[in-house]
Amino acid sequence: MVDQLIKYSIIAPVYNEEETLTEFYNRVLSVMDSLDGLSELLLIDDGSTDASLDLMRGFQQQTSLVRVISFSRNFGHQVAITAGIDYAIGDAVIVIDADLQDPPEVIPELVAQWQEGFELVLAVRSMRKGESWFKRTTASFFYRLINKLTDLHIPKDSGDFRLMDRKVVEALREVREQHRFMRGLSVWVGFRHTQVEYVRNERFAGISKYPLKRMLNFATDGITSFSHVPLQLAMSMGFIFAGIALLGIPAIITLRFSGSREFFGQATTLVSVLLLGGVQLICLGIVGEYLGRIYNEVRRRPLYLISGQWGFDSDDQKN
Ligand code: UDP
Ligand code: MG
């Protein structure tokens, strides 16, 4: 492939998407044809265990505009996007989900904004089709929380579907932290950005790869990577309870000396001990959460390991 000719790189993380891939590929390909420059499709197989990788290798054999990277195991959506950003060669890089929830036909609109001079174009969902009430409510709560707790402004309802100029891509390549929240990071790096609205579709087929536990981890990553507020929460709670105690102690002493029979007994003691114990454990847990993350970062393990790649000049023969 003639690297310098590639103007647009479309990167898509793929994890067990065998039912959608062919449709995705065909639709992306026709969008690629309609763009004003040469584009490549970079597919990152995040350790799929179904036929996804075989399908992708098949696409790669059809055209040299497709490149495939395969991870040695599942490293997660955000890391797969990172690998795409690391290997993309276009002047503009577009991140898109492979499940067709992000319609490829919106790409030309993102490109149009880029040509207007915007360096980061976020695709924002004006409507979310086929997502449960639970997913919509938790997502909206999460965006409100993260915007309150951090200095970032992440537009509500923006996913990972976006276009990034080469400058943004270079900046993101510098960021190597383990707990990656790409939506936050791409806003954190700065640059001129704008939004394009689109209707988010239902998944073409298959199920969401984000069960509740992964959603919670994802939300924790987002908040702890950009905010220390949870840590400070411990101190505020400490002050509140110490304050209550400071007021309570003289009150109880006074009541006792005035002969009142209230505020005695084990129940009061038990409740206050439970409350304070609980608060302390929560605070300890928050400290532990950050500590665990620091431990992960200092180990400096590679973010991902590649088991095969196809469509790359020097290693076409590999695997
Ligand atoms: N994905 C991935 N690795 C994972 C989970 C998901 O590469 O561990 C991909 C998945 O194939 C899809 C995209 O990330 O292309 C978004 O995942 P999904 O549709 O499951 O998330 P949702 O849209 O439900 O938030
Ligand atoms: Mg999806």
Question: Would you write up a description of this structure?
Answer:
There is one protein chain. This protein is of the alpha/beta class. It folds into 2 domains: 3-210 and 301-316, Alpha-Beta Complex (Spore Coat Polysaccharide Biosynthesis Protein SpsA, Chain A); 229-299. 50% of the residues lie in helices and 18% in strands. The protein is built from 10 helices and 8 strands. It has an 8-stranded mixed β-sheet with strand order 7-5-6-4-1-2-3-8, sandwiched between helices. Helix 1 packs parallel to helix 2 and helix 5 (133-149) packs parallel to helix 8 (212-226). The longest helix has 33 residues, at 266-298. The two termini are 19 Å apart. The mean pLDDT is 84. The structure holds uridine-5'-diphosphate (UDP) and magnesium ion. Uridine-5'-diphosphate (UDP) is lined by residues 13-15, 17, 46, 74, 76-77, 80, 97-99, 101, 208-210. Magnesium ion (MG) binds at residues 97, 99, 101, 203, 208.
